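ligand=adenosine monophosphate
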Amino acid sequence: MSFESLGLAPALLRALAEQGYTAPTPIQAAAIPPALEGRDLLAGAQTGTGKTAAFSLPLLEHLYVARRKPTQPKRPRALVLTPTRELAAQIHENVRAYGKHLGVRATTIFGGVGINPQIDALRRGVDILIATPGRLLDHLQQRSVDLSHIEMLVLDEADRMLDMGFLPSIKRILGHLPRQNRITWLFSATFAPEIKALAGEFMRDPVEIQIAKPNSVATTVTHRVHPVDADKKRDLLLHLLENDGRQTLVFGRTKHGADKLAKMLEKSGLKAAAIHGNKSQNQRTRALADFKSGRINVLVATDIAARGLDIDQLPMVINHDLPMVAEDYVHRIGRTGRAGAEGLAISLVSHEEEGLLRDIRRLLKQEIEVVPVTGFEPSRPLRADGTAKPVQNQRPQRHARRPHVGSGNGEPNPEARKKPRRRRVRNKQPRPA
Ligand code: AMP
């Protein structure tokens, strides 16, 4: 499926091409068509699946197609509610990027920053409000915002909002919105009974969509660990790439490390480039386009840049370093073995990374074959190769959660609520600093 086939305006398609998006993610492919038809949505999707575009694109399309006439009041027509200000800022950034050729105005309303610039922005006129509930209620109280013209409401991360005790605020906000002719899209990782009940109160016959949680990897991927001393990893990477002409996505842990690896590979005669958060969008787009077209054979990435990368038929992923969070392994490996194609996922693991490897095996609930490479055998064998207990006999352990920053200004701080619980594990190895 392509973005063109979804029937989006050319100005939106142009912005998507500039973002380097080539095809819709599963949540986008499932949500955009009914959203464009004006249906309410109950969409099960998590951050990292492309859900921001899944609601922002139809929202922008709708505002663009039904453009405001110059005589109409400049009140907001779309409201996106999110639990944290970081998320609000991130959505704003995306909306700005997708809508840059449309002339649609968006602004954020959240706590922890001065209220006056927000009041000024509201006075000047805005189409899309992206808000956290607390500050939006402040504006409602002092009548600096009028929500009576809202045509579209998005509740993002609805499960987290409910979990964080926002329900009374959300209900109060809902009381300020028009009931008739409003489209409502609710995005949530899970559909707990409270969410269904909430949805039933203010949605009209919503279309239900559920995108699988990416906590499992395709069976078409072969996983392999090459144990190696940390200081021999680069040589082993070069050895593997020189002996295998396949297109390969290499993951490093840091931006600096990714740059150094790409330079080393280039010096050795391989066609390589790095892609990470410090590169400009142009550089990122070009590197990705070159990789997709085969002009370069090796792309060295960090996790940040790799999120959402959609590369057709990528045969091999190499982890030069294991990710600090086990779920990122699944995201990384998810870049290969797509659409039924065979994929190979190789991880270079030094003994300092044994704890990370153990977390990954627990998350996947599967062993990963450990295969030393002749000439690169480690000075200390990995405990994982044979001496560790089989995974299925161990107690399940919660893996570390991605840290989440709270929104401040009296809004609940999810970090305080969800401290990662660590259980005691036998044969515990020291984790790398
Ligand atoms: P989200 O789940 O909205 O946080 O998106 C996760 C990441 O995927 C973001 O970096 C987006 O820029 C990226 N992304 C969203 N949609 C696509 C797409 N269709 N193709 C490539 N990347 C995408």
